Amino acid sequence: MIEILVTLFILSVGLLGVAYLQFVGSFTNSESLSRSQSVLVAQQFTERLRSNAVFSIRGDGLVVDNDYFDSTLYNFANLSCPSGVLPYQCYCLTRPVAIPDCHNNVCSSAQIASFDAYEVSCAAVSSNPEIEISLSCEDNNLGDTQACSVGSKHIVMLRWPVENWQNINRTLNATCNVGKTTPYDCVSVDVTL
After folding, report:
1. Rounded to an integer, what distance in angstroms lies between the CA atom of residue 192 and that of residue 152?
2. pTM, whole model, 2 decimals?
C-alpha cells in the first residue's frame, strides 16, 4: 500500500510539471505568433512604402506622400465600430465606405496612403486584436515641406501589450513603451528609401 501511495505521489508531481510546461508553452506560443505576424506586416508595409515612393523634387532620391505620416489613418482611428466587436471583424471583413478602393480605381497619393494604412492595420490585427501599428520618420531635412525627406529613416513599429506573470517583470525595450502605462513589446523595422 505504501509503495502505491509513493508511486501516486511521484506521478502526480510529474503530471503537475507537465501541466506547467503546457501553460508556459501556450503563453510563449502566443507571444511568438504576435512577433512573427508583426515582422511580416512590417516587411509588407516597407514594401508598400517602396512601391509608392516617387522621386523628390528637392533632392536625388525617393519620398512617400506626407499622408503616410498621419497617425489617424492607422489602427482604424478614423473609423467607428460598436464596442465589444473585434477590430478585424468590424473593419476588415468588408471595406468601410470611408476607405478608398485602390484595387479597382485610380487613386491619388493621399488615397493610396489611406488605403495602405487600412490594409496593413487589418493585416496587423488578424492574429492579435491588440496590435498597434505606427510609421514615423527621423527627418534629416526639417526645412523642406516633406514629412520625411530624401535619405531619411522611416520607422515602422508594431507593438502589443504583454503581461508579466509569476510576479516576474519582463525586461522590455524602452522604445516600445513610450507613452504607455502598461508594458508593451514591439517589432521595429527601419528603412531608407
Report:
1. 6
2. 0.79
